[in-house]
Amino acid sequence: MPRLSSLAFATALALAAVPLAAQAQAAGKVKVGFMLPYTGTFAALGVAIENGFRLHVEEQGGKLGGREVEFVKVDDESDPAKATDNVNKLIKRDNVDVLVGTVHSGVVMAMAKAAKDNNTLLIVPNAGAGAVTGPMCGPNIFRSSFSNWQPAYAMGEVAVKKGYKKAMTITWKYAAGDESVAGFKEAFEKGGGSVMKELNLPFPGVEFQALLTEIAAAKPDVVYTFFAGGGAVKFVKDYAAAGLNKTVPLVGAGFLTDGTLEAQGDAAQGLLTTLHYADGLNTPRDNAFRLAYAKTFKLQPDVYAVQGYDAAQMLAAGMSAVKGDTSKRDALVAAMEKARIDSPRGAFTLSKAHNPVQDIYLRKVEGKENKVAGVAAKALSDPARGCKL
Ligand code: BEZ
């Protein structure tokens, strides 16, 4: 019978003490499933999120918690009707360890439900749907971005301070648009303003003309808007082409001008928006991130790239704590919950509902930048209405 050396014997004993599943997991790659839009009005947002996530993983030598990372991806097309099938491809066909997605608030609802039903870890790198960190919150659901309420509420306060009394709002008719308008209205009306009329069009429509004519006729003091991606480019250009940029100030959640300025050009100059990221923060952390991102992707980063990068940072915090053993879910989640994320936007922690508690910047478009003009709301936490964690 072959004899074991004492070292080999000790190693065999140690391995026997580790459950088999944990050994297999620790040895293999950790599978991350991106469910993001790669086509349609939010395509650029999906790409920036993936880039940001991959950049952080590369900075860790391609590993999280000591395990190499394998990526699989699905284009969700920002289509809620396809969302359940798409997320099930990642959970059931690809057996991902972690879901990362998505951009669109309607699509993320199906992701959160599937993540809950299958107890899959989900990190939301954009979609601001209040329900995700509200009634649908759960130990396995995290967000690295914002709630739709956060930038909107901050802009409502800014509009009050500017002395505006009568506002109109215009957005796409879906969860993100509705919640963004509600957040603005909550702060604006609390401060004594009133919203005269809420204008909508279906997502992802860009037929703005009739609505712009209505704004011109009503002459509010200010217009608040939520648009993003390709739709935001068209809206800002149409607003200026109608001459409204000379008569009725336009303000918005910062998605209106983030990642879009190259295409919006002169039409965007001077616009004020609120968001949890800005150009010109000029901190060592942000400067290093921007340089690394620009070198790697030959592109300037935007808020979506930051959110992807921070989703990876959040996962890295959990994975390091369990040395890559994702079967230790409670310990992994506990480490993510208490992590202080050293984000390019400024360090943040997570609320009880797993949403960033963060500064919301006031930004002004100057040239091709959303220049930071101050902090509109300090350490703003989403109210997490309906979350029972
Ligand atoms: C959303 O649907 O939640 C969303 C989409 C684009 C930018 C911001 C929010």
Can you give a write-up of this model?
The chain is of the alpha/beta class and 389 residues long. The chain folds into two domains: 195 residues, Response regulator (Rossmann fold), CATH 3.40.50.2300; 127 residues, 3-Layer(aba) Sandwich (Rossmann fold). It is 41% helix and 21% strand. The protein has 13 helices and 14 strands. Strands 7, 8, 9, 10, 11, 12, 13 and 14 form an eight-stranded mixed beta sheet that branches. Strand 13 and strand 14 form a beta hairpin. Helix 4 packs parallel to helix 5. The radius of gyration is 22 Å and the shape is globular. It starts with 5 loop residues before the first helix and ends in a 9-residue tail after the last strand. The site of benzoic acid has 12 residues, from loops.
Brief summary of the model shown:
α4 runs parallel beside α5, α6 packs parallel to α7 and α12 packs across α13.
Entry keywords:
binds benzoic acid, Rossmann fold, 14 strands, 8-stranded mixed sheet, 389 residues, disordered N terminus, single chain, alpha/beta
CATH superfamily of the largest domain: Response regulator
Specify the structural class.
alpha/beta
Q: What is the tally of helical segments?
A: 13
Mean pLDDT: 94
